[in-house]
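Hi V.,

Quick status before I head out on leave. The structure for the redesign project is tokenized and pasted below; the design run finished overnight.
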């Protein structure tokens, strides 16, 4: 009889601990989602952006390096991505307003014709490249759009996963000059 009660007590104790951890994980998960569901900013001080060689959307070869000494914004995108459809025209507008930065889009579409149609439809004028050499892996891209802000020396100053507003992009570009 006493052994049966001890077994019930142990079972209740361990069940309580399991329920507590499930509750704790749930609270942390929902708090993370509620705090900022669309954007996660990851600071990468002093990490040098990987160089790469790839093709432009039009087929010409392109070598990415830091010889231009311009602050650079690189965004990874796809034509089927709704947040990309919002962000790409904003980045294009910012590029047109500011010739002291370069904006580069790296497309991950399977069908380049989809990317070309998107660029034409939205009248995107900044440089658009194809991810031929697993650039997404080199940069550790986890979702799209994912945008990197790189200073003139090639250091990644910030990295943003998710949709950006024009004001947020301008603030992050201002950080490149400092």
């Amino acid at each position: 009889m006493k052994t049966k009660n001890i077994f019930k007590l142990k079972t209740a104790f361990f069940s309580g601990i399991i329920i507590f951890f499930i509750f704790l994980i749930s609270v942390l998960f929902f708090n993370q989602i509620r705090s900022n569901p669309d954007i996660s900013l990851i600071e990468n001080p002093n990490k040098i952006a990987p160089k790469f060689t790839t093709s432009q959307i039009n087929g010409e070869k392109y070598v990415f390096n830091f010889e231009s000494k311009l602050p650079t914004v690189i965004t990874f995108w796809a034509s089927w991505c709704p947040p990309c459809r919002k962000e790409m025209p904003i980045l294009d507008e910012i590029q047109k307003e500011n010739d002291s930065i370069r904006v580069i889009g790296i497309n991950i579409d399977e069908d380049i014709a989809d990317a070309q149609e998107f660029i034409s439809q939205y009248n995107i004028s900044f440089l658009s490249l194809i991810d031929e050499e697993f650039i997404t892996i080199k940069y550790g891209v986890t979702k799209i759009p994912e945008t990197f802000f790189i200073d003139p020396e090639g250091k990644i100053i910030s990295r943003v996963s998710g949709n950006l507003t024009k004001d947020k992009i301008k603030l992050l570009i201002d950080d490149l000059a400092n």
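Above is the designed sequence. The two ends are 74 Å apart (CA to CA).

G. will cover questions while I'm gone.

Best,
W.
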